[in-house]
Amino acid sequence: MQPDLFENKPVDTPEEGASDTLPVLAVPSKNIQDKLEELKKAIRRHDELYYVHNRPEISDAEYDRLFRELQHLEAQYPALITPDSPSQRVGGAPLAQFQKVPHEFPLLSLDSEMDMDRVQAFDQRVRRELEMNEVEYTAEPKYDGLSVELTYEHGAFVRGATRGDGITGEDITVNLRTIRTLPLQLQGGPSLPAHLVVRGEVYMKLEDFHQLNRRLTENGEEVFANPRNAAAGSLRQLDSKITATRPLAITCYEFMSHAPEKPATHWDAVENLEKWGIPIPQYRRRCRTIEELLRFHQDMLEQRETLPFEIDGIVIKVDRYDWQQALGEKSRSPRWAIAFKFPARKEMTKVRQIAVSVGRTGALTPIALLDPVDIGGVTVSRATLHNMDEVARKDIRIGDTVKVERAGDVIPDIVERVVVPGEQRAAAFVAPEQCPVCHSTTIQEGPIVYCTGQTVCQAQLKGSLEHFASKSALNIEGLGKKTVAQLVDKGLIKNLSDLYTLHKDQLLQLEGFADKSATQLLAEIEKGKHVPFPRFLIGLGIRHVGAHIARVLAKQFGSLDSLKKATEEELLQIHDIGPEIAVSVTSFFQESRNLMVLQRMKESGVQVEHETRASGPNAQLLAGKIFVLTGTLKGYSRQEAKQKIEDLGGRVTSNVSKQTDYVVAGKDPGSKLDRATQLGVTILHEEEFSLLSQRGDLKSSK
Ligand code: IVH
């Protein structure tokens, strides 16, 4: 790669207004069309020679001349600009925001393992479930970048999206077009699929990353901490012209959907991608045994330091698609693949100070302030010591030399103290007897020391308020860390219910607030007065009640009032609720301070929406049963059918596997029906399904 040349490549667009002065011809002649095609073809070829093969055949000046000619012609005949034209790689007009796009199939993530034993256990499970002595796997490097979904229609790149939450992503098509190694038009003629969705990883090569940072420094701009952040920051640019100047790379590693048919194995599918000109992972290997997989892991680990890009492990995938299907998937990850991660990178440094922070639950977290150290390209100056027990167990004291580990994006961790012979050590660190923020006394519960100040403690209040306003809870836009801190510091908020009595003139006292922003925030708070029950529950920050448990509780109790009355015994009867959660929930609602806050919220107009309650004899009728839907149902949309099943305690997944209990088949069912027949899964037709969902009685429906 010649990095200097890269920056020259995104050629300037023609001067502004140039097209105004050119004659706009209504009907382009055949000659013009041919000329355009010829130019596009030539530029594509030179792009590939340069960016993919590193073997340019023409000079930069020559290339620029071709490119300008193309741009000039396209400016004259804008109707002839196609999305796959190389001119589209220089980015377009800045966007106000990214559009949301639903993924055709969920973009799952992977379970990751660090230990050989766990990978062995994965292989054993796979072989046991498939009833095979030997299973063929494909192993690939795990690229450390950002997952994206690409859609090609009849060979043309039409859409690209970020992973988002796996169900919905953001449309970053224009930005992806700027990646030179991403083909805008697939090669390969007749065998090209009509519809192709692939998944890949956008990343930045190390050399390009360092060069980009040098360029940013020279321009007085902020640098990126690591190649992954640089790739993410570049790809999520609203101004795609900026993205075009960023040296991004891409590799594709999954076939999501493919019409008409898909090859039998992942290996062959990826091979096809390569034939069509899509970049695929280097160094992939077919492995038949656990030994071969471990060998690949070891080989890649050894190569890691010399590779031109960052990898953080390998990915192991069952190769045959029919076997993948048989193994199925969990809610977020497939059961046929696993990430076998590398050990995190470690460096040595010294502890300068031990600070203590207070979280929203009042837990005191000791934090080591370090002599800054570069760990795999990131400067680290703080590391968490988790809790007081950890400090004691690792015996970390101020002045000690320590080994610090950085694993992906996770906060760096102190692995251990390095013993320096003859050193003079400071006294052992002891947990503060008073909260460093509110000076209330602290108490130790298990390994954790808590501040007893609760709402008196501004740190806890700030944490609770931030959590209440966060995306997964009330999602109050404009109520971030900074605003929360000011509201609490100025005494405008003393508990969560004060949020709803804020006035505009109070907000105007805050730094960064003007008339418009204050009105906006008040409107956001107002909007949040109608809140779905599960989100409200998450927002309350009851210990051990995260998103999943909040949903379970909401479904089970339907309203805040009935949850308030729930006894420990009642809670314990619910699948997923253990004693810790039961105690935590009941004690939350016994605490008069919490009840008062809830009452005040109600008085201010907060209405927690009721949840359709899973109740009666049917609530648990389908508990644990797994459904797959295929074809069109007359009486229900997919979403309604799914809702029905979930209301009865069942679960809907997308692939038929041995675990599937029922396949509900509507009109024009897909291959899922064949698969169900093959595996002997019970098939329900619409009438049977209706009976079941109305009466909750499966037997009479058969
Ligand atoms: S396969 C259903 N293969 O690692 C299979 N992922 O959590 C999904 N990644 O989000 C992923 N290199 O962004 C796969 N060769 C590779 C990969 C890879 C990197 C990323 C991907 C995913 C994450 C795993």
Structural description of this entry:
- The structure is a single chain.
- It is globular, with a radius of gyration of 29 Å.
- The longest helix has 23 residues, at 30-52.
- It starts with a helix and ends in a 7-residue tail after the last helix.
- It is built from 26 helices and 24 strands.
- It has 702 residues and is an alpha+beta fold.
- The structure holds 2-(butylsulfanyl)adenosine.
- 2-(butylsulfanyl)adenosine (IVH) is lined by residues 108-110, 140, 142-143, 147, 201, 253-254, 281, 315, 334, 337, 339.
- 2-(butylsulfanyl)adenosine (IVH) binds next to strand 3, strand 8 and strand 11.
Give a concise summary.
With 702 residues, the protein is an alpha+beta fold. 37% of the residues lie in helices and 20% in strands.
